[in-house]
Amino acid sequence: MNDAPVEPLLVPDTEHRGMMAILPPPLRPYASLARFDRPIGWWLLYWPCAWGLALSGGVSGHWPLFGWLLLGAIVMRGAGCVYNDIADRDLDAQVARTRLRPIASGAVSLKRAWVWLIALSLIGLIVLLQLRWEAQLVALASLAPVAAYPFMKRITWWPQAWLGMVFSWGTLVGWIAATGTPAWPMMLLYAGSIAWVIGYDTIYALQDREDDALIGVRSSALRMGVHVRGGVCAFYLIALLLWAAAFWMVRPQIIVLVGLAPVALHLLWQILTLRIGEGGDALAKFRSNRFAGFIMALACLAVGTAG
Length: 307
Prior knowledge:
This protein is an all-alpha fold and about 300 residues long. The chain contains 20 helices and no strands.
C-alpha cells in the first residue's frame, strides 16, 4: 500500500505509518491527535499501574485489572495528548518536531478536538467504574495535575517533574485498586517512578532544546545544559534506590534487590550509549523505556507474589 498520502499528517516521531495508511483518511488526524500511532506514551503510562498492582500482591484475585488499566492508559493518554495539543497549539506551530500535529497544522479544528477529548474521556469513565471506590477517588484526583501539566513548561524549568507526578499516578491507582489502602511501599514505588520519568523525559526533551530555547519554553534538558548525562544518571539512581526500598518493605530479603539488576543494567546502558547533539539517538533511548517498564513489572510481580 502506498503510504504517501499519509505523510503530511505525520509528525517525525510516528511509529506506525502502516496503521495510519490503513485508516480511512478522515480518521487519520484523530488517531494522530490521540497518539495511537505512537504507543510508547501509553506503555509508559501503563507500566506504573502494573507495578502498583503487582507489588501489592494484586495478581491473586485481581488479574482482570491489568487489562482494564491498560485500556485506561491507552484512552486517557490519548485524552491527555488531545488536551495538551489544545493548550499548546500556538507553541506546537513554532517547533519543527510538533508543527505537523493535527491541531497546530489545522487538520483538526479546535471544536472537533474537544469532541474527541470528551469521547476518549467517556471510555476512560467505563474503566474507572471497574475499580473499587477508593481507587476511583485516587484516579479522579489526578485530573487537576493532568490539567495543569501543559502550562508547566511556561513557568518552571522542571516540567518533567510535573509529568513524573502525572505519569506515575497509576502506581497509586493500581495499588489501591488491589488493596483499598495506601502503604509506604506504594509511596516509595511512586516516588521512584517520578524520578524515572524525569530521567527519560529529559532524554526526550533533548530533541527540542534548540527550538525550546528560541521560543522560551523551559525543560530539564535545557536546565541541565552540558550536565544532561550526569543529571539523567542521578535521577535513574534515585529511582533505583527508592524502588529498592519499596521492595525491601514488602519482602526484607537481599534476594529482592537482585530483581532490580536487569532494570539497573538497562538504565545504565541508556546513559552510557546516549548520543547527544546532532545525529543523536534521544528518541530511540526514550522509547527503550517501554522495555525498562516491562522488566520492572516482572520484578514487582516476583516480589509481590512472594512477599
